[in-house]
């Protein structure tokens, strides 16, 4: 088990039956007990108020609007005061290094988000069940992806967690309250009081929103634990830190040990703000690998029927396929998922090559063989070339090209901007524009990348020879 950190309270018992006392108490105070008609109006008021949280600095001294009900305003103020501070063990130097790495890997980061982090999120059945209940992924897969990006970008941009001008803490505190709201709706009350089975309820035909679906669905607490519990939150945290770093290793782009640990550290600080217990975090890749495997094994031992994972995975793959313009490489996302997460995980989330690629088995197998051969040749060329040119990488080039399509077509579509404050959205746009040039690549490789992505020649300025 990961060593306990001095000064941090050590929780006891099953982490699948522990949630987030701070956020849960805030939501309970604001919504009160469920008696009669659910408090949809209060949920709308909460969303309106937290929408004001645009930067970290704004949270200090923040006060709700004068017309907000007293119990809602007081609970929000107390929640912000208690959740705003970073942990005593946060290391600003490590966080700054992690920010630089995120920006450096830019477009590639988006490929790994789509092809490894999100697929691994869907492996745990009861975690996928919450997503399934909300209906966000099946009905609009891009909604969940874009919501995830709207949290990741503010956290990992320069100063996201440490600067008053950053917005990472503000965005994470919003997400933390959303998790608590989901728990409260599914359980129809405080998680601490949930013991048995919450029976499903019939919804009125007109009540088809996410909140109504969560409230009406029901939940088997003895079998599935609590929704959005500590283990699920900690597991998700590992998909953004550990799985990202593991994927870089598989692509032959692994970081130095200090850089890997700096990246994990930044995500752990984010996890603290999100309400995750320190004992469920990993400081090294070895700890992360063991913790991740243990959580996956436990999650797989608790099946959720009907299994929501294949539908979620296939909708994710369809979204990726639609973002790829060239028919000859539309199979790339499915094959990359299998390469990065492994055949077992890919099969569990519906990434079956023979079924998802091509009209018949022969086409699927051919695509699989060609992809495998391509990855082997790429690794061989990269290994030899780096003996002379240390930064040379065809793997980085190809994954950046795919990441560009995901970034432009899904994350930064100007007709559907990310749900971020305008000033922050402008900063994100500026950052992603800078990603169009790879500072590690030679001039000819950047020129090839521009050609493959269809970008103009203006991105060539400032590229080193």
From TrEMBL:
* Stretches assigned to the ER-bound oxygenase mpaB/mpaB'/Rubber oxygenase catalytic domain: 144-352
A Gene Ontology MF term for this entry?
Answer: oxidoreductase activity
Q: Coiled coil located at which positions?
A: none
Read off the InterPro entries from this record.
Lcp-like, MPAB/Lcp_cat_dom
The protein's superkingdom reads Bacteria
PANTHER family, alphabetized: ER-BOUND OXYGENASE MPAB_MPAB'_RUBBER OXYGENASE CATALYTIC DOMAIN-CONTAINING PROTEIN (PTHR37539:SF1), SECRETED PROTEIN-RELATED (PTHR37539)
- Its recorded name reads DUF2236 domain-containing protein
Organism the protein comes from = Massilia cavernae
